[in-house]
Design goal:
The structure is a homodimer of 180-residue chains. Chain A contains three helices and ten strands; from the N terminus they run βββββββαβββαα. Chain A has 180 residues and is of the alpha+beta class. Chains A and B meet through strand 2, strand 3, strand 6, strand 8 and helix 2 of A and strand 2, strand 3, strand 6, strand 8 and helix 2 of B.
Chain lengths: 180, 180
């Protein structure tokens, strides 16, 4: 670490879910380079299994990519909220379930070449139906998939979201058993 | 699809690897909302196995997240280049190996809530040593990992990059065998 040294930083945009800054840096070689950085609040994603052992996915339109995607429930931390609180809130908003058992299992960056976004992945169990209202600008449908069909979902290309692929793979290796 | 209808679009930044636009949309409910979109060229990532069957990872500083990460080789398409050509070029630049066998295996979005970035994942085999010069602003070290230790890498939290987690999981299920 510490190879690239910032010499100046310009914030070009401060928005609702992202900020944009462009930094000038000096490389270890002494050469200069530009670094475009999208600042994004920490986010959470929740791999939740319902009382019947099925995994909850949400289907929603994603404007940026002009597609409807199947993803695990996820969302962005709000000011003053811990990632655990965000995970519980987002799961309730998007699926109606409150998790009585919530465990952090993995942390990863979604696109470290330009974005600060980090996702904290939680595993949620012992779900209790206690819905919260969805965000006004979200239109989300819940799907439940059987763990037995997970490999088919992953193999078929139906899952086109990186955090969901990472989470379902984690599940296959750690929860579903039979792989070790 | 087609639920959110664009009513206006403002390009706020056109940069080196990303553009930023902010669109006003009408939701299916008739309400209005803002959509912040980072435009990013299609990218590729390469899961390459060397002649000894080890998987090639690259270690590099990621300025945006202020960390040194272990990732599979990856990069952005250049104008006029197919994703297959990008995959072959990036692998040579970052590891020195030219793949004689390159197969597309998966496509996914890294952060569909705000970014258009899509990654096309290739599996590369039959590697021939034929290095290309690295980009002047990249400082990359190659690591080789044994497929037997993949689960440990994934379980230990040492891999903190979503595309790399997705790719290594794909490998475990499709290539390494013994899981079906």
């Amino acid at each position: 670490m510490g190879g690239e040294r910032k010499i100046s930083s310009n914030v070009l945009y401060k928005g609702r879910i992202i900020n944009l800054k462009v930094d000038n840096v000096v490389l270890p070689s002494g050469k200069k380079a530009l670094r475009e950085v999208v600042e994004h609040a920490p986010a959470v994603a929740v791999l939740a299994t319902d009382p019947d052992g099925r995994i909850l996915l949400v289907k929603q339109e994603r404007y940026a990519v002009a597609e409807t995607l199947l993803e695990i429930p996820a969302g962005i931390t709000e000011p003053g909220e811990t990632v655990r609180e965000t995970a519980a809130r987002e799961l309730r908003e998007e699926t109606g379930y409150e998790p009585l058992d919530l465990e952090e299992v993995l942390r990863f960056y979604t696109s470290p070449g330009f974005s600060t976004e980090m996702i904290v992945l939680f595993s949620a169990r012992r779900l209790k139906y206690a819905p919260l209202e969805q965000d006004y600008d979200e239109d989300i449908a819940v799907e439940r998939i059987d763990p037995e069909s997970l490999r088919d979902y992953l193999g078929s290309g139906m899952i086109r979201d990186a955090k969901t692929i990472a989470a379902l793979c984690w599940y296959l290796h750690h929860e579903h058993g039979g792989n070790e």
